[in-house]
Structure formats: structure tokens, C-alpha cells
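User: Predict the complex.
Assistant: Input components as received:
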Amino acid sequence: MRQIICLRVVSSLLKSTMRSHTFFDSLGSASIMAKILDGKGLAKDIRNELKIKIHNWVLQGHRAPSLKCVIVGDDPASHTYVKNKIQAAIDVGIEAETIRYEANLTEEELLMAIDGLNANSEVDGILIQLPLPGGIDERKVCNAVAPEKDVDGFHIVNVGQLCLDMPTIVPATALAVVEMLKRFKIETFGRNAVVVGRSKNVGMPIAMMLHSDMSHDSGLGMDATVTICHRYTPKEKLDFYCRNADIIITATGVPKLIKADMVKPGATVIDVGIVRVTGEDGKTRLVGDVDYDVPGGVGPMTVAMLMHNTFQAAQRQRDNDQQ
Amino acid sequence: MRQIICLRVVSSLLKSTMRSHTFFDSLGSASIMAKILDGKGLAKDIRNELKIKIHNWVLQGHRAPSLKCVIVGDDPASHTYVKNKIQAAIDVGIEAETIRYEANLTEEELLMAIDGLNANSEVDGILIQLPLPGGIDERKVCNAVAPEKDVDGFHIVNVGQLCLDMPTIVPATALAVVEMLKRFKIETFGRNAVVVGRSKNVGMPIAMMLHSDMSHDSGLGMDATVTICHRYTPKEKLDFYCRNADIIITATGVPKLIKADMVKPGATVIDVGIVRVTGEDGKTRLVGDVDYDVPGGVGPMTVAMLMHNTFQAAQRQRDNDQQ
């Protein structure tokens, strides 16, 4: 019975194979082939796999994994994000609940609420939606979540474990990128990778996993030679490193930063950057770092990996309880 | 009085200015200029500065900083290292003591001993000399040292803080390299740096500080574009990245890995790698990663920065006690 279900997942995975796209630079003078990975289809596959795994886990007598999303204030974008995460969680069989607080919540009150969730053995994952209102120290709040329930992977201990190649909870967007490289079988060993952007939740952890040792405990190392570029990398040097890269991961939020003529034929590009811009027609639309319509993108993969992290947190805590 | 002492330090610092060296590739066919930094003189200056700072700190009524070096077993090299550290500590006015255990000490006994040192408010810094005998989990031991007393900077929390650009205790060799770049006024902003070697105590933390944001809290960010090369970087790619680099930090222990023709004129090279090799004459000698006699090297700077870390640990713990 279980084997049949697994086969169904595999065949579904095969459908979302990598697509290659030809794209043109802004002058239309050159055309090159580059692999741009479709996160959307893969995210769907991963969510389907998780759904089956969680279903089996519950059949084995465990309670369903449980996720609490804490949101403070009225930021509409944050409420949309949380709503999407809750829906994704419920879809895969995670019990998910939003805990809403008014914007005037104090840091102390928030820390007390987190303590309560940490102490509650019925809660496996805790997600604090960022940004928090001014006056609340986000780093303090991230460190207040018990590391084993920190499904965002933002706690200092989880960051430390990641950087030491130890098994840990990895920030979902960074994990999404690594998962895409693995699922699409992009060779990383000894290859040249460029990470554009050095944010602590995306660029930095991606660079850590890309360069580190494949044989280590985390299973996340990729043995690539990695160049970290950022806002102070001169334009001509960014061009230089990108043109030399087999893999480009870009996560800057600078619209159309990576042009077609910066990407060598056959290179793999993952565009994590996304920003809302207003066009000449007055309409707003989402634009990536890559000057080309990237299919899908990393967004849906991030949500899928957050669900992966929540299930992983539930499993680890159950394992620890049984020891 | 104090001002005069400071001036003396400054003038002493001026004497150990950077030297430029001409070196030749193995064929003698090309000569290039590269800056190779002399750590030895700088280490002496830093120890002199520390001596004065600690002297003033004690004059202010604080007890002298206190360091405990724990060594397990009979490894002669480890005993030499510890002896040098203790001597350096005493020279700058740190009260330092070696705690020796037989090689048959169990992990549990070692963890209990560390707990005792953690709880002792008269102890500011704890150093566990590595490697530990087989059967003792080094990572567990590193994480058992209270983060605020972890003068090696190996605790997960200290690693996490470093990678998040937060003030922390930085592994001494990595800090030595950054301090050398700063003291010798090597421009890093927007420059191309290559770190050869990805060890968790040296290469990784150096790459973290080199690429990260100068304006962040740690004060250690250097805003360079950083390429991390390692054992699986193909030889021709290592050449490629090194030739493009303004700064090369090498920490592999592979003798003579970096040849003269891989270094562009005017580039800065810091050679952290050191390994004992046996020559054709049967004699052993120390050889670096760079195929050239590097003056001084990073070793003495590592010891000096360990003393810096110990004094910093003492100051922070006193500050915390007073809060």
C-alpha cells in the first residue's frame, strides 16, 4: 500500500523536470542557454510527499505536527504571508494556528508568550512573523524561541550548527535553494558558484551550504567553490564572477541586476530576489533579480520547506522524548 | 602618565610597518611584488598594548584576568602549545594555570571539570587544548564551556553570533588574520579576497568576517567580495581565483600550494598554513602554504589574540556582573 503511494510521488516528481530557457540580453544582440529552475512544480511535489509522510506518521499513532504562527500588528503583507503558511500547513496535515497580537504588544509580553509556547509539549513549531513593530528587538525574539521549535532556523544556536555542518533547522528559503539544486540534480562538486546577496537568512546560509563538505553530518554540504558578492562588489567584478559561474544564486531584491550576458551558456540560475515595482503604466508587478521571466521562483519552495522544517521539528522532539 | 604610555605603544607599532618582498616563482622566470605581512612584530606590539591595558585595569581595582588551560593526555606538541600560551598570558599580566589530566579521563569527568570552571567566578577564560583523546566528543566539550568564558570562540553560540555579525569571541587565528589586515591598513572594501581552506576554526570564520558588513555591530565586517576555495576546487580554478585576488588568505596545510605566479602584483598574502615536512637531508622543518619564506607568520598573532580574547572575556563578565 505504502509503496504504491511512494511511486505516485516519484512519477509526479518526474513531471516537474527542469526546463531550459533561451533568453536574450536587453539589446537582443546575444542569446544564450541557461538553466532556470522551476520551483513551483517542485514545491507541489514536496508538499505532496510531506502530506503522505505526515499521514503515515499519524497512522503510526503520533499526533499531527503542530505549528503556531505569531503575528504582531496589522501589516497586510505579513498577514497574507501568515495566511498562506497556515493554509499550506493545513494542506499537508499540520495543525496550524495563528496567534495575533495588537501592535502595542511589548517585547516583554511577546517573550512571555513565546516562553509559554516553548513550554507547551503540544507545540512542535513556532514561527514569529517578521518584521516586528519598532521597539521590539527581533534578534532577542528569535533567540527566545526554543531552538528545537525554531522552524525558521533563525536562532543563534541553529545558525551556529548550520555553520559548523551540524544537523539543524535551516532557514526555509536557503533550504529551498539547496533542495532545488539537489532535486534537479545540478552538479555542485568542485563547481563555481556565485551567491549574490549576503543576508543572514538567505545569502549567508546558502553560501555556507554550497561551499561546505558534502561528507559531513548535516548532509547539506555541496563542495562548490563559492564567491559571495554583495552591494559593495563593483559592477565589473560582479560581471566577472557571474560569467565564470556554473551556478548563480541571486537574492538581492535589486530588479534585473543579473543580465543575460552575465550568465554563461549552460549555467544554472536561481532567482530568490523579488520586489514589487511600479511600471510606466502605473501598475505594480513583481520583478526578480534576473532580467528575464523566471518560471515559478523560490517563493512556493520556501513555504514547502517551512512545512518540511515543522515536520522535522515534530519528529526530532518525539525522538528526544523517547530517549 | 597614561597618555605617554600610549604614545610609546604607538611609536612601537610604527616600527613594525608592513614590509614588501619580491619573490620569484619556482622557475625564476618571473618576479612579482606582493605584500606579505609580518605577524611576529605585530604580535609583540599587541602583547605590549595588552600588558599596559591589563596593568591599568588592575590599577582600577579589578583582579587580574584569569585563564585556565585544560590539557588531557601526553601529546608533546599540545604540551608545548599550552606552555607557550601560559607564558604569553603571564607576560601580559593574566593569571594563567594549566590543568592536566591523564589520557584515560572520561568525557563525563571532563564535562564535570568544565562545569566547575564555568561556575567559578574567579575564572574568566577556559581553553580546552585540542585534540582530545579518542572517545571524547570534541564538539560536546567545546559546547560545554560557558560561551562567555570560551576564549577559543568554538562554542556554537559564539559561532552563531560571529556568523550573524554580532559581538562575540572570535577564534584566535581568524581574529589574528583580520587584525593583521586592519593594523597594516590593507583595504578590503569592495576588494577581491580569496580564502583557501574551509576549516571551521580558521577558513570559515575568516570568510565570514571578510565578506560581511563593516557597519554591523561586531565591528569585524570587511565588505570584501570573498571566494572560498578548498580541497575540491580544481587546480586551474584555484589559480584563476588567486590571480584575480587583491587579498589571499591561505590556511590549508598543503606545502607550497600557492606559487608566486598565482599572486598578482601588489596583492596581500597571509599564510596561515603550516606543516612540518622532512627534507631530503632528513631534517624536519616548518613549511607554509605559500611557496616562499614568509616572515613571521600568523602563529605569534594567534597567541596574542588569545590573550586579547581572555582580557575581553574578563571585561565582559565584569560588565555583566555590574548590571
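Residues 88 and 162 of chain B are 25 Å apart (CA to CA).
Let me know if you want any component modeled separately.
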